[in-house]
Amino acid sequence: MTPELTSPRAELLSALPQPLPAERILVIRLGALGDVLRTRFAFPGLRALYPDARIDWLVEDRAAAGLAGIVGLDGVIQVPRSLLRWRRPWDGWRRLTRLVNDLRARRYDLALDFHCILKSALLAWWAGIPVRVGYDGTHAREGSQRFLTHQARVRPAHLSRFERNAGLVRYLGGQVSATAPPPLELPAEARRAVEGLPANPIVMHPGTSASTRYKRWDPARYAEVAVQLQARIGAPSLVTWGPVAGERECAEAVVERAAGAASLGPRTASLAEFLALLARARLFMGSDSGPLHLASLVGTPAVVLFGPTDPLENAPFPGVPSRILQHDVGCNPCRRGCPPLPCMAAVQVEEAVRAALELVAARTLVD
User: Fold this and answer.
1) Sheet-wide strand order for 302-305
2) Strands (DSSP E) along 4-157, which ranges?
3) Domain locations in the chain as residue ranges
4) Residue 47 pLDDT > 90
């Protein structure tokens, strides 16, 4: 098991002497889903700093579902991902112009760019937003800091995404909690949709996005964990899946091998329903992916199976109990999909079971 990881607190080499005046604010974090989810943890601090301002969020359509249930968010502006692919800039130029004109018409005073890549910075600049706040070159990429009016000097360079996002809000003068998940509004119909599922299951999510298949753990190992947890504490496992091609098949492979110790989760009609499902779980188990951060949103403890990605940068929200499993195999962290992945194979069933039992026992004591 990876030693207990604690990200250093984001330090500001300089901060604004007083909050910037603003009545209309545009938050920019375009994607992906997991990154959008981690950014929303900083939102309550921004809303508290600007209680009377209108705050909208600019996000790619593929990640817009990650904004469901945010308390205090006034509007969501979705951008088709295809619109922002610079490899074919002539394709959809008219639609891009319409988007920029729409942003101009909204007359934002302040853009807060959590993404800080070239396309996010250019959108705020093209839209004529007079005050554009983001990171300096330590955390900004692709030279995007050149298009900002204010650069937050957040240190160190190696931070959890939660702390990095919090640093930007602190730069403005706000405060961000590192212990409590942000308020979440779940529709009553979402909760009703999952009422018939087993109570307090172990939720396993073996799938990932199509582009991050290298993060997946062997379905046979998930199945063995389910078998052992059923035998030792009588805990049923519910194996969930998402809309990505191959995810359902991955979940079915776990259920098939689990010999009755696991059942297949339902198709959820919305992200809100999936959140309601996770809120019923006693534990989440999965890799570094969007569902992990959804579990953090509802306060569900997590066993996280890390392989090629950085566990400090990508750890779950620190205010929710978790166990991170990763082994140093000499070449990780990286972002490569070398088959087979020795780092994922190094995570053993026994340590996953042990971590799950520890978290379940700790939660039982609290409850």
Assistant:
1) 262-264, 237-239, 202-205, 283-287, 302-305, 322-325
2) 11-12, 24-28, 54-60, 75-79, 110-113, 131-135, 150-152, 154-155
3) 11-172, 188-366
4) yes
